[in-house]
Amino acid sequence: MVNRVCTAAELVRRRLKRQRRLRECAGVDPPGKEVHPLRLNVDLRTGLAFEIESYNRTVVTEDRLEGVRAFGEKRKTAFKGK
Q1: How many beta carbons lie within 10 A of that of residue 82, not counting itself?
Q2: Distance between CA 69 and CA 39 in Å, rounded?
Q3: Is the Cβ–Cβ distance between 70 and 77 less than 8 Å?
Q4: For a 10 Å CB count at each end of the chain, is N or C smaller?
Q5: Contact 50, 33 (CB under 8 A)
C-alpha cells in the first residue's frame, strides 16, 4: 500500500523524523535503528531482511507487549525500557 509518493531524499527525511518520534515515545529503540544506514546500500530483499531481524529483536520485549495492550485498551502506554 502506498500513502505518499516522494523522492528518495524526502523518504529518508520522513523516515528519520518518524524514527525520532518513535524513540521519544518508546522505552526501547524502534526497529531498524541500527540497520537503517546499512539497508540503504543493499538490494530490497536484503534491506527487508535487515528490517525483519531488527523487528524480531523487539518482539520479545515487555514494552512491545505493553504497547499492544495499551492499544487494545485505548489508553496511553507506560513503557519501562525493557
Answers
A1: 11
A2: 31
A3: yes
A4: N
A5: no
pLDDT digits (tens, 9 = 90+) for 22-55: 766 665 555 545 545 555 677 888 878 878 887 8
In CATH, the architecture of 30-82 is: Orthogonal Bundle (1.10)
Instruction: Using the structure block, give the residue that is written with the C-alpha cell 500513502.
Output: 3
pTM of the complete model: 0.44
Sign of CA pseudo-dihedral 51, 57, 63, 66: positive
19: cell is 524514527
Contact 28, 61 (CB under 8 A): yes
